[in-house]
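Forwarding these from the shared drive since the link keeps breaking.
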Amino acid sequence: MNTKQKGIIFTMIATILFGITPAVGKLTYAMGNNGVQLAFLRHLFVLPLFFIIVVYQGQSFRLNKSQWLDVFKVGFFGNTLTIVMLYSSYEYIGVGSATVLHFLYPLFVVCMNFVLYHQKLNKQQLCCLVLAIIGIFCFMDSSSSSLMGALLAILSGVFFAYYMVGMDHSSIRYMSPYVFNFYLVLMNSIVIFILAFLLGRITILPIQAYILSGVVAVLTSLVGVVLLQKGIYCLGASLTAILSTLEPITSIVVGVVWLNESLTLLKIIGCILVLFSTFILVKAQNQKEDI
């Protein structure tokens, strides 16, 4: 098996895990859990694992002032708010719909680079943006819960786009990924716990809910992240991003089959438009990098 084939397998397994775990997490909602508390548990459970990995590899935990600032800005506004918004959206709409709307983030990355770093938008990018906006409206209905869920999912994509842009334009890109992830999950555990406490979202759960939350934590924040990093190493970021479109498709299938979520023709059309616009955008970027 060559490097490219390994990268494809790593990436596909990671995206399938990312696509399945939202459904696992949503099962805990019926046991008294909620999106904010699940986000807290997801980071708390992997915190000691990242600590052990960093110590085992003999890496330093020391950061300079610039790195501390970047970890806070990118970590809080990019990662923390992404997960809180996305997990909260599952309380209002299906995991498949939420994941598709979250996958608008490549378009938001383009927009942020245009606004913050004056990177020009070409006709292809503008066309993708229009297609994605049309796709968004396919997921909307008149109920307030659906609108709230869609808004939360879209905002999760906005904050994740900031996370991607911040990673690319800060000192974080030169840090050890395990050290960065340790401080990231540490900060998220503290910040999200405070948020959950202030909102009154901390509840005592049955042991099964904690076990399922632990499964979500390990499969996403540890196994999924490591496999995705290996995929990027073997394939490159652009090709990995294209293969990652398997994630929302997996979420939709799992949501319909496992959670009995509805899937209308209009939502199918919206899904196709969003994924098509994302695929074209990332593929165009891949061709641009090859020139």
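-- next protein --
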Amino acid sequence: MSTLKIATFNINGVRSRIGALVEWLEREAPDIVCLQELKAPDDAFPIDEIRAAGYGAIWHGQRSWNGVAILARGMEPLESRRGLPGDPADEQSRYLEGVAHGVIVGCLYLPNGNPQPGPKFDYKLAWFERLIEHAASLHGTGHPVVLAGDYNVVPTDELDIYNPRSWKKDALLQPESRDAYARLLAQGWTDAVRALHPEEKIFTFWDYFRKHWERDAGLRIDHLLLSPGLLPRLREAGVDRWVRGRPKPSDHAPTWIVLDE
């Protein structure tokens, strides 16, 4: 049976890490990729290198900050939405939606929210509410949907962070952030990585400070959520940790799932 591999990767600068991105694409060959933190305007997105690696792409960039993209192996994704509904004044490039290989993919970069409390945390929670509302409409269609990206939420203290003690005041661990994530799941979405690895400590992010990578002091903040119809097709899930160990890496590693097609 053929399969479909879908990945999410906060690239933390697509132009400076295009070599690492292409190396990963060639080695792991995901069919669909959601990228976050492009940190590049639309006209600086390295589409030529990505096409040379065998991928079509849609992207929603922003100079210096944010930015999201969807890549599809051997085809051009069909864009269905650019930006979350609910706030016409929001100019941050954090959400892109498209169709590829028979699946609707929502690529998201949820606000970090630090420092909290404050306006950045308020923006995070407001953005989260808009995501929850839009996700409900996607869920209601009955179509196969994956909501993939950097959620900037550590779901639990026990399995999703090396040690919560020094992170207690961080926006990623606040009760409001976790509650919003739980309410999103309660619509009927499945956290795919956790579904297949219910008791395993899994990390997708290791910041650049205090030798966190060398000590494996990580966090799980990159998630792939599946609509109900995709859950029976879920076969594998994991993290390409080797990417984080390469020279001058992103502080995230690609996180992926494999579905029966």
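The chain is about 25% helix and 25% strand. The longest helix spans residues 119-141.

- D.
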